[in-house]
Amino acid sequence: MESINEQLKSIRLLVLDVDGVLTDGRLYFNEQGEALKVFNTLDGHGIKMLQNSGVDVAIITGRNNPAVAKRVKDLGIKHLYPGREDKLDALQELWQASGFNADNTAFMGDDWPDLLAMAAVKFTASVPNAADAVKKRAHWCSARSGGEGAVRELCELIMTAQGTLDSMLAPYIEGYDE
């Protein structure tokens, strides 16, 4: 079996769930009954750096929420599949539309609806607060929980495996002694 680094070298598409991965999984509602989402800036910057390193990012989520669409737009993510409870079907549509495939795709999920899509890709990741069935089937689990920088960890892991992390970090550490 390939090591995690070997598996990640060929990844060109990272697919993310939202609730429990990009958020802490809790649902917040305002007085009008609209669902609110809280996102972590560490994840957002990690996604931007990963995209700049040459890896595309996609979102497949079971809910259809304007806050997710806004966040996706702000991060420059080109592939959004909202309101999709059948995540495998959405993933296959994404592959057909984009030219990506199972051999160059990673998926990060946290709950049972993610399992079929996770089973279809080369590399799977999860979070420590995920359902046990998901953690058991993931190749890797972040140290940070969903909504608390877990996606950033995975982005850095992919860039490290692909040898791009140092070049992505360089503009931020220029002038510092190591």
In short:
The protein has helices at residues 4-9, 41-52, 66-75, 87-98, 115-119, 132-137, 150-162, 165-173, and strands at residues 13-16, 28-29, 35-36, 56-60, 79-81, 105-108, 123-126, 140-141. With 178 residues, the chain is α/β, with parallel strands linked by helices.
Describe the protein's architecture and organization.
The radius of gyration is 16 Å and the shape is globular. The chain has helices spanning 4-9, 41-52, 66-75, 87-98, 115-119, 132-137, 150-162, 165-173; strands at residues 13-16, 28-29, 35-36, 56-60, 79-81, 105-108, 123-126, 140-141. The model has no long low-confidence stretch (mean pLDDT 95). Strand 7, helix 6 and strand 8 form a beta-alpha-beta unit. The N and C termini lie far apart (35 Å). The protein has a six-stranded parallel β-sheet with strand order 5-4-1-6-7-8, with helices on both faces. The chain has eight helices and eight strands, in the order αβββαβαβαβαβαβαα. It has a single domain, classed as HAD superfamily/HAD-like (Rossmann fold, 3-Layer(aba) Sandwich). The longest helix is centred in the C-terminal third of the chain and has 13 residues, at 150-162. The chain is 41% helix and 15% strand. By secondary structure, it is an alpha/beta fold.
